[in-house]
Automatic annotation (TrEMBL), chain A:
<dbReference type="InterPro" id="IPR045886">
    <property type="entry name" value="ThiF/MoeB/HesA"/>
</dbReference>
<dbReference type="InterPro" id="IPR030667">
    <property type="entry name" value="APP-BP1"/>
</dbReference>
<dbReference type="InterPro" id="IPR035985">
    <property type="entry name" value="Ubiquitin-activating_enz"/>
</dbReference>
<keyword id="KW-0539">Nucleus</keyword>
<dbReference type="Pfam" id="PF00899">
    <property type="entry name" value="ThiF"/>
</dbReference>
<comment type="pathway">
    <text>Protein modification; protein neddylation.</text>
</comment>
<keyword id="KW-0547">Nucleotide-binding</keyword>
<comment type="similarity">
    <text>Belongs to the ubiquitin-activating E1 family. ULA1 subfamily.</text>
</comment>
<comment type="function">
    <text>Regulatory subunit of the dimeric E1 enzyme. E1 activates RUB1/NEDD8 by first adenylating its C-terminal glycine residue with ATP, thereafter linking this residue to the side chain of the catalytic cysteine, yielding a RUB1-ECR1 thioester and free AMP. E1 finally transfers RUB1 to the catalytic cysteine of RCE1.</text>
</comment>
UniProtKB/TrEMBL annotation, chain B:
<comment type="similarity">
    <text>Belongs to the ubiquitin-activating E1 family. UBA3 subfamily.</text>
</comment>
<feature type="domain" description="E2 binding">
    <location>
        <begin position="339"/>
        <end position="430"/>
    </location>
</feature>
<dbReference type="InterPro" id="IPR023318">
    <property type="entry name" value="Ub_act_enz_dom_a_sf"/>
</dbReference>
<comment type="function">
    <text>Catalytic subunit of the dimeric E1 enzyme, which activates NEDD8.</text>
</comment>
<dbReference type="InterPro" id="IPR030468">
    <property type="entry name" value="Uba3_N"/>
</dbReference>
<dbReference type="GO" id="GO:0005634">
    <property type="term" value="C:nucleus"/>
</dbReference>
<dbReference type="Pfam" id="PF08825">
    <property type="entry name" value="E2_bind"/>
</dbReference>
<dbReference type="InterPro" id="IPR033127">
    <property type="entry name" value="UBQ-activ_enz_E1_Cys_AS"/>
</dbReference>
<dbReference type="InterPro" id="IPR045886">
    <property type="entry name" value="ThiF/MoeB/HesA"/>
</dbReference>
Length: 522, 444
């Protein structure tokens, strides 16, 4: 076996060893292993997911050879689940792969407790009725669930989880936590000891901008009754004051100070997003609360005391002498450590209060929570039945009337639901078989209009073009579309299992016509 | 009747549709033409290439070729699903082609284990569509210039339909990626929007030498400065584990000296080799979008992407389509740089002109006209064969046509980095276009 670290090197650089460990512990159940399902699993097996169970009751047919890479000629007539499972095992022998030759619909009906053994269920190509039933089962058992479906040139992906809390959301662009608008005493006194008028030009051009800005903000506050620049004029003036201190054009540290001056003007305190999280009713914890919410409760106490979140503790690279930079780094780290200790104390007190072991949340976990406190994210997903029975009216209206971008995507959303009603009425999907095209088109149209009415959108219509093409698709599962949908689904599974990055919200509607796909928040 | 293998694809190819491309003619002939006549080249057999070959083989194409110069490494196995541990060290193109042919009956894939520059231009002209699954800007730029090089314009400066060589390009990095359709002369080409790929920022040498602050600074010091000081004349080889280990231990020493945390072996590899994180799922998404567009271009079974799709899965899921516009003055996909000259100018003089031309600045140029090599800088055999042409007038070498397109390949330097570039030139000879054209004769 290859050294796993080398094999997984390119992904360890994204989610680290912790993320990898979470994947390797996860147990995944796949319902239906057509191309959409098998492509989803392929991406997870390659990445070293712990175990997979493939559930499909069908036999490989000639037609499957044209859209599924994981079945081949020799498997025609045999169990599709077996064939797909065998190919997946070949990709990665570290993965425990097994299959059950059974129709998912039957399992959902007869054996709901079956699903509680898994970390996450990937349900592909299910019709509405089965989706709603499975959703209830998985919510009840607290099992993560993701739906994926490919249908002609469209399809969707939808996560269904009661609540998913992310500590390591790892956003791409997030303002660093320098506290230039509100320096703590140690940072202020470090800056005070440095002379910006130092005669040595080499020292002058290697004074980090953090020091420059803390000192100049202090100076400004002294001359302005304790307040920092707030009006446009004042901000401009502040920048000019920095410029005036530049001695030569090549002083990158002063250029950086001017560019970063907005960090001095930024309001103190926490973001509205974080405010919402600490105000969440789940932050009133009891003995049943998740560790995450216990930490949020501690964070809330911290913020009530200090007005700020705990300091992140890292600083970006900036023009500086090595010595000043390293010292600055240590000052930020020390403050972050001090904030962590306060939070840890709060966590212990809270745990005591709710009758749990005060050490049951690990130090590493609390540290990570503190470091990411400003970036916490909560994702919640409506039960599927609620969305289907009462979609968010204003949103749906907005999508339906937005001709510019999403009208095709929302049209597909309605039609994807309409084809399931069609199938429930007529025992086949519109256009699935040759010869009844015109009749199917008018039937589908009637159902779609009815569906719009049921959703409270009387008067809205879908274009003939779209209805016609939906019938043309005839429930085809095209490989390229399945690979796209499967790719999206596996990406979201990775985010859910590693608890890193932010999973998608709403329902992703794939528009394979011109790729103007959309996320609908219904 | 037995079920058809193209059960699902037939719905799209045999049935009339509304949201389709121009000249869509559904029917069995379309399906058969796709099988028989469409020829698709996949450039790159890595993370995207493996997916692309599978996706195209299951999208009705039967004539595929793939070109890649790399061999399989262990760190490919987390995403390049056609490769197994036992394949490590073998050429990617060959293994990928074999694996797909084993599983998809009827498809033929010809592998090319070589550099993209090693192929004659005619090789590329043979394909209906070129699909790019690359991780380098230089390689994209090269293929783009080759494909755009085939483009001819009519006398009204409109692109001639039959000379258009469409490309579909994909790229990924971590949870992000893009897919785009390039129809030379119609959509922007890679060069028109080169600003989408900003050059990589490098650390100033004085920071590395004097004021290191981060682990990466210490690593680059060991890699770029210390290595040369200690190993005079020996080039650093990033694939040699001993070399990497040496850089790592030097970086650790330097970091300790300055009190800088964070140097690890993995980071050392990442910085030195400029490793881009890569995962199976993003590659699957982007390749699928590219394959679908390839099918749509070849069959017109649906409208196409116009013309640039971005995907970002870091925070939620964001996809966006942007319609970029063509740069009218693009040196690569435009009608070509106009070169007016006297009929007496020799091929050698012409090559010198290219070096000084402000829009070109092309050195060591090789020149071809209508597929004929007029002068080749390499290989030596060809150089020798074509050397005598240098003293002949270009006009004579071009069969005395008054104006025509020539292709030149040479080296351009952009911010100290030399890249090989292909340019299309519109050569017009003064004083030969018709008998009574006297006013330009004085220029001879």
């Amino acid at each position: 076996m290859a050294e796993p670290k080398t094999k997984y090197d390119r992904q360890l650089r994204i989610w680290g060893e912790q993320g990898q460990a979470a994947l390797e512990k996860a147990s995944i159940c796949l319902l239906n292993c057509g191309p959409t399902g098998s492509e989803t699993l392929k991406n997870l097996v390659l990445g070293g997911i712990g175990s997979i169970t493939v559930i499909d009751g069908s036999k490989v047919e000639e037609g499957d050879l044209g859209n599924n890479f994981m079945v081949d000629e020799s498997s025609v007539g045999q169990s599709k689940a077996r064939s797909v499972c065998a190919f997946l095992q070949e990709l990665n022998d570290a993965v425990k792969a097994k299959f059950i030759e059974e129709y998912p619909e039957a399992l959902i009906e007869t054996n709901p407790s079956f699903f509680s053994q898994f970390t996450l269920v990937i349900a592909t190509q299910l019709v509405e009725d089965s989706m709603v039933k499975l959703d209830k089962i998985c919510r009840e058992a607290n099992i993560m669930l993701i739906f994926a479906r490919s249908y002609g040139l469209t399809g969707f992906v939808r996560i269904s989880v009661k609540e998913h809390a992310v500590i390591e959301s790892k956003p791409d662009h997030f303002l660093d936590d320098l506290r230039l608008n509100n320096p703590w005493p140690e940072l202020r006194s470090f800056a005070e000891a440095i002379d910006l008028n130092v005669p040595d030009p080499v020292v002058h051009k290697h004074t980090p901008y953090v020091v420059i800005l803390v000192k100049m903000a202090d100076e400004w506050a002294k001359n302005h009754g304790g307040s920092l620049p707030s009006t446009r004029e004042e901000k401009k003036e502040f920048k000019e004051l920095i410029r005036a201190r530049m001695r030569a054009l090549d002083e990158d540290n002063y250029k950086e100070a001017m560019e970063a001056s907005f960090k001095v003007f930024a309001p103190c305190g926490i973001s509205s997003n974080l405010q919402r999280i600490i105000n969440d009713s789940c932050a009133d914890v009891d003995s049943n609360s998740a560790d995450f919410w216990v930490m949020v409760a501690a964070l809330k106490e911290f913020i009530e005391g200090t007005g700020e979140a705990p300091l992140e503790g890292s600083i970006p690279d900036m023009t500086s002498s090595t010595e000043l930079y390293v010292t600055l780094q240590k000052i930020y780290q020390a403050k972050a450590e001090a904030d962590f200790l306060v939070i840890q104390r709060h966590v212990r007190n809270i745990l005591n209060r709710i009758g749990r072991d005060s050490d049951c949340i690990s130090k590493t976990m609390i540290k990570s929570f503190c470091k990411n406190a400003r970036k916490l994210t909560i994702c919640r997903y409506r039960p599927l039945e609620d969305e289907f029975n009462s979609p968010v009216q204003p949103e749906l209206q907005k999508y339906l009337t937005d001709e510019d971008y999403s009208s095709i995507a929302v049209g597909f959303y309605i039609l994807l639901r309409a084809v399931d009603r069609f199938a429930a009425n007529y025992n086949s999907f519109p256009g699935q078989f040759e010869g009844e095209m015109d009749e199917d088109i008018s039937r589908l149209k009637t159902i779609a209009v009815g569906l719009l009415g049921d959703s409270g959108c009387n008067g809205s219509t879908l274009t003939e073009d779209l209805i016609n093409d939906m019938c043309r698709y005839g429930a085809a599962e095209l490989h390229a579309v399945a690979a796209f949908i499967g790719g999206i689904a596996s990406q979201e599974v990775i985010k859910l299992i590693t608890k890193q990055f932010v999973p998608m919200s709403g329902t992703f509607i794939f528009n394979g016509v011109d790729h103007k796909s959309q996320l609908l928040s219904l | 009747m037995a079920q058809s293998r193209s059960r699902d694809l037939d719905k799209l190819l045999l049935r009339h549709g509304h949201l389709v491309g121009p000249n869509f003619e559904p029917g069995p002939d379309l399906r058969d033409d796709l099988r028989e006549y469409a020829r698709v080249l996949v450039v790159g057999a890595g993370g995207l290439g493996c997916e692309l070959l599978k996706d195209l083989a299951l999208s009705g194409f039967r004539n595929l070729e793939v070109i890649d110069m790399d061999r399989i490494e262990v760190s490919n196995l987390n995403r390049q699903f056609l490769f197994r541990l036992g394949d490590v060290g073998k050429p990617k193109a060959e293994v990928a082609a074999k694996r797909v042919m084993e599983r998809v009956a009827g498809v033929n894939i010809v592998p090319h284990f070589c550099r993209i520059e090693d192929k004659e231009l005619d090789f590329y002209n043979d394909f209906s569509i070129i699909v790019l699954g690359l991780d380098s800007i230089e390689a994209r730029s090269y293929i783009n210039s080759v494909a755009c090089g085939f483009l001819e314009y009519d006398s009204d400066d409109n692109p001639r339909e039959e000379t258009i060589k469409p490309m579909v390009d994909g790229g990924t990095e971590g949870f992000k990626g893009h897919a785009r359709v390039i129809v030379p002369g119609v959509t922007p080409c890679f060069e028109c929007t080169i600003w989408l790929f900003p050059p990589q920022v490098k650390f100033p040498l004085c920071t590395l030498a004097e004021t290191p602050r981060t682990a990466a600074h210490c690593i680059e010091y060991a890699h770029l400065i210390k290595w040369d000081e200690v190993h005079s004349g020996k080039t650093f080889d990033p694939d040699n584990p001993e070399h990497m280990q040496w850089v790592y231990s030097e970086a650790v020493k330097r970091a300790e000296l300055f009190g800088i945390p964070g140097v690890t072996y993995s980071l050392t590899q990442g910085v030195v080799k400029n490793i881009i994180p890569a995962i199976a799922s993003t590659n699957a998404i982007i390749s699928a979008a590219c394959a679908l567009e390839t099918l749509k271009i070849a069959s017109a079974c649906s409208k196409t992407l116009s013309n640039y799709l971005t995907y970002n899965g870091v925070e939620g899921l964001h996809t966006k389509v942007t319609e970029f516009v063509k740069d009218k003055d693009c040196l690569v996909c435009g009608p070509g740089v106009l070169m007016e000259m006297a009929a007496s100018v020799t091929l050698g003089e012409f090559i010198t002109l290219l070096e000084d031309h402000p829009k070109l600045l092309l050195s060591r140029a090789s020149v071809t006209h209508r597929g004929k090599n007029l002068y080749m800088q390499a290989p030596p055999v060809l150089e020798e064969m074509t050397r005598s042409n240098l003293d002949l007038p270009l006009f004579d070498l071009m069969d005395k046509v008054p104006k025509d397109v020539v292709h030149v390949t040479g080296t351009t330097s952009k911010s100290d980095k030399k890249t090989s570039s292909l340019r299309k030139l519109r050569v017009v000879f003064k004083g030969v276009d018709g008998v009574s054209d006297m006013d330009t004769a004085g220029g001879a």
